[in-house]
Amino acid sequence: MNMNKNRDLMINGFGSSSGGEFELASINGKGKVIGDIECKHYDCNGFATVNGNIKAETVTINGKSTINGDVDAESITIDGHSSMSGAVNTETIRISGNGSIGGSLRGDQIKINGKASIGGDCEAEEFVSEGLFTISGLLNAENIDILLYGDCKVKEIGGQTIRIRKKVQGLMKIIKSIYPTRLVADVIEGDDLHLEGVKAKIVRGNNVTIGQDCEINSVEYKGTIEVDKASKVIKTSQL
Fold first, then answer.
1. In a domain, 235, yes or no
2. Taking residues 208-226, what's their average pLDDT?
3. Which of 6, 94, 149, 233 has the fewest Cβ atoms nearer than 10 Å?
4. How much helix, strand and coil, in percent to the nearest 5, is found in the chain?
5. Can you give the residue range of the structural domain that contains 36?
């Protein structure tokens, strides 16, 4: 069932539909869409399954959405639970709930306040995280700012300015002393690096600051280096 973009796809109870072109695609109950969706706005406030790709101006997920395909949108907001099996291309994405992406994620601005899992590479101009994430491939961004609230994992990190810090307040200080908060990576490479709570095999940069609670096998630097006494660095070498 193909519709014009001045028509809406609405599922408020239980229902299913084929894909098509819509102004608004909104699922507030429990619904399934079979086929690709092209619309201005995709909203999920209930339980939605889309067996196809989504192309939209905005994607907003407050409920639980499963998208078995790629997503191409100007803006994506995930406050609920979302699973996207393919690649995601967007200008801005904010994950405050739980977001799983099977392929790569590419966007201008990526912000994580909840929990994110990315099966491929993650590329952005700006990457900001105050949550939990796992990235199976490369995290590459001009500016990377990560505030650690729990364990994060990424294969490699590359960027110009990379800042990874630990946030511990109140009772969390006791908990985190027993279960350390860490970001684990094989390689971290950039121009200006400030790292806390990082476990990595290789750190490479121009000006490198190794703050508290780090475990680094090798640090390679061109300009300056500082290493906190509470961190462990096996080897340092100036390039």
1. no
2. 97
3. 6
4. 5, 70, 25
5. 8-181
